[in-house]
Design brief:
It contains 12 helices and 8 strands. By secondary structure, the chain is α+β, with helices and mostly antiparallel strands. The chain has 3 domains: about 100 residues, no CATH class; about 130 residues, no CATH class; about 100 residues, Up-down Bundle (Four Helix Bundle (Hemerythrin (Met), subunit A)). A hairpin with a 5-residue loop joins strand 1 and strand 2. Helix 4 packs antiparallel against helix 8, helix 9 runs antiparallel to helix 10 and helix 10 runs antiparallel to helix 11. The relative contact order is 0.09.
């Protein structure tokens, strides 16, 4: 087991180094080219080519081409699908406990299908590496494909109804594996899914279940829960977490055309934001103040609705506002504190 995890960490470190070289901005690379003997150019086919080394010596060429682009909407879809993956994993473990390997396998395969969908959304970068000796002969050559594999869990998860069951399932998996548990009262403020790690363990679980090796499958699923989910805990962020959840629930209430409940959720969010504002220095409060003013304006609109009917366009505009605030709050985590 330890050997497999060591290999995984090594692959992760190497992939990180390659990504650093591939995605480093050309301007930054050119700025340091005189010291690092690095040259950056674009090839005729649109690829970015970085050359390391000096004329007459050993030279390494790194050629990369990225296809696809991860939009904000795609990221939200990927986030929602990864939340589904963890739910399928938890349900698969329950099925194993109920002596139902066939039903467990169905849940595992659903999780694998969701990951395939996520991968189809993520951009891919083809990387070709070639090293030339001083005489011009190639002494090393390699082709590989890199893809981002860490998905922050945003839409559909960072609120109590969805996050708590997943965290509970993760705690169960940690107990199963004999891990020391984090304080249950500590607030989770950032959650990231590791697609590669999860996919590896799901493949192992599927193979084990196909051969009725339920204990081995349960172990793989527990590992997916533990190593596939990174959680950042910060008690100082608790007012911001509550404000974010309040805004999310306000949006959900408006989707159900329940303006009264939306107002209650917005009030909670506003009060929590005011608490968070008090933790910041004077020059850091501008964005928070702007959001507070916007929330108060929306509260005023909702109070004036009364018994009149509200158009779908109005609700859509209000929902867009709430989504914007929700995204903004997610960007504030750990920026100031």
């Amino acid at each position: 087991m330890s050997g497999r995890f060591s290999t995984s960490r090594w692959r992760l470190a190497v992939s990180g180094l390659v990504a650093l070289l591939v995605f480093a901005g050309p301007a930054k690379a050119q700025e340091k080219s005189s010291k690092a003997s690095e040259k950056v150019r674009s090839s005729e086919d649109g690829a970015v080519v970085r050359t390391f080394g000096s004329e007459g010596g050993y030279r390494t060429e790194l050629k990369s081409r990225t296809t696809g682009k991860l939009t904000t909407d795609d990221l939200r879809q990927a986030s929602l699908l990864m939340a589904q993956v963890f739910q399928h994993i938890a349900e698969a473990r329950d099925k194993i406990d109920e002596d139902g390997p066939k039903e467990a396998l169905k849940e595992v395969n659903k999780a694998r299908d969701a990951i395939k969908a996520v991968r189809s959304m993520l951009p891919r970068t083809e990387v070709h590496t070639r090293t030339l000796a001083p005489d011009g002969k190639a002494i090393y050559e390699d082709d590989r494909e890199d893809q981002p594999g860490r998905i922050p869990l945003y839409e559909g998860i960072l609120h109590r109804q969805t996050l708590e069951p997943i965290l509970a399932a993760r705690r169960t998996a940690m107990e199963f594996a004999g891990y020391r548990l984090v304080d249950a009262e500590t607030i989770a403020t950032e959650v990231v899914a590791d697609v590669d790690s999860i996919e590896t363990q799901l493949t192992r679980a599927a193979k084990a279940l196909e051969h009725d090796k339920t204990a081995e499958a349960a172990k793989a699923l527990a590992t997916a829960m533990i190593h596939g989910l990174s959680i950042q805990y910060n008690k100082d962020d608790s007012p911001l977490t509550a404000a974010r959840d309040g805004i999310w629930m306000a949006r959900r209430s408006l989707e159900e055309n329940n303006s009264t409940q939306a107002l209650a959720n917005l009030e909670t969010a506003r009060l929590r934001l005011q608490t968070y504002r008090g933790l910041l220095s004077e020059d850091q409060r501008q964005e928070v103040d702007q959001m507070l003013r916007s929330i108060e304006q929306l509260e005023g609109e909702l109070r004036q609705e009364g018994n009149r009917s509200v158009t779908g366009a109005e609700r859509a505009r209000q929902g867009t506002l709430l989504t914007k605030w929700w995204d903004g709050i997610n960007g504030w985590f750990h920026r100031y504190l």
